[in-house]
Design goal:
The chain is of the alpha+beta class and 305 residues long. It contains ten helices and twelve strands. The chain has a twelve-stranded mixed β-sheet, with helices on both faces.
């Protein structure tokens, strides 16, 4: 687990922030509704690599759905133009084009009772935390991650005939692996704290055709989840190679084949890799992914825990 600290903002930065946020009356924040969908997607498409998760939620579920595990909000300037879009809920994600919009979303997020994590580009998240945190408040943990992207398939490796979309028959194997990966990242095992909800989310992803697996003799050898699927970017998570078969090239073969399939319908693939996981970073480098940015994921203390 990569643990890092939130850096304090320097005095000169605070002075700049004060100037930028001195006129909050020029901004308005409101809940987004279904009729805003195309406007919001166009706004997010200006930076697709960094907004793919929000765009994926909207494409899958719309702006108003319990499946988003939160609510979408907009920040507009005095002329009514979007300056920011945020999903505030279990996971808080923010796309803000001004410091004032970032501050407005942070203040709004303070009242969210179900907040579990805040994720985004490192510098932006540090500034968001400055506005969000109460005096003396500390994160439960902070994970520094590398945003990687692949735009073109690498040289084809030996094919994997068994790589396919998962079926509900593999739900238990998928849940066990995904639960352990979530625990390693966040310190919370969804199998223990929210088994019904976790099972529902995993089964829904399988039914959507978003989980790829390679099963052999009843064992899960490889798994990858398509979290967000947009024309610009497909965001992957939960990439797993069975420890018993690592260093044999199986993972690279699966990723090479999967990338070639997915890049037929999108411009690029993206993933987040723990900064301290040099082995994982080397694996994705070999399979054609390139470093694009550094991200922070802040895991929050659970209220009432």
């Amino acid at each position: 687990m990569s643990m890092t600290k939130i850096s304090p903002i320097r005095t000169e930065e605070l002075e700049a922030i004060a100037t930028l946020t001195a006129a909050p009356d020029s901004l308005s924040v409101h809940l987004l509704r279904g009729e805003n969908k195309q406007e919001v997607l166009a706004f997010l498409a200006e930076r697709p690599l960094h907004t793919v998760v929000m765009a994926g939620h909207i494409r899958d579920n719309g702006l108003e759905s319990e499946l988003n595990r939160g609510q979408f909000h907009a920040c507009r300037n005095g002329e009514g133009r979007l300056e920011g879009v945020a999903l505030i809920g279990h996971a808080t994600l923010v796309e803000a084009r001004s410091e004032a919009a970032l501050a407005a979303f942070a203040r709004l997020a303070q009242s969210c009772p179900d907040a579990h994590l805040i994720m985004g580009e490192q510098e932006r998240i540090e500034r968001f935390w400055h506005y969000y945190a109460k005096p003396g408040q500390l994160p439960r943990r902070v994970c520094r991650e590398l945003l990687l992207e692949q735009r073109w398939p690498v040289e084809a490796l030996e094919p994997v005939p068994g790589l396919r979309l998962a079926s509900l028959a593999e739900l238990q194997e998928v849940m066990l692996v995904q639960g352990e990966m979530a625990f390693q990242e966040s310190g919370i095992n969804p199998m223990k704290v929210d088994l019904p909800g976790f099972s529902l989310r995993c089964s829904r992803r399988i039914e959507q055709g978003r989980v790829w697996v390679w099963m052999e003799d009843g064992r899960l050898i490889f798994k990858a989840d398509v979290i967000s699927d947009t024309p610009e970017v497909i965001y992957l998570e939960g990439i797993y190679v069975n420890p018993d078969v690592r260093s044999r090239g199986y993972g690279a073969r699966c990723m090479s084949q999967l990338a070639r399939v997915l890049l037929q319908r999108t411009n690029s693939l993206s993933i987040l890799v723990n900064e301290q996981s040099q082995r994982a970073a080397a694996f994705f480098d070999r399979t054609g992914f390139k470093l694009r940015s550094c991200y922070d994921t802040i895991f929050l203390e659970q209220r009432g825990a």
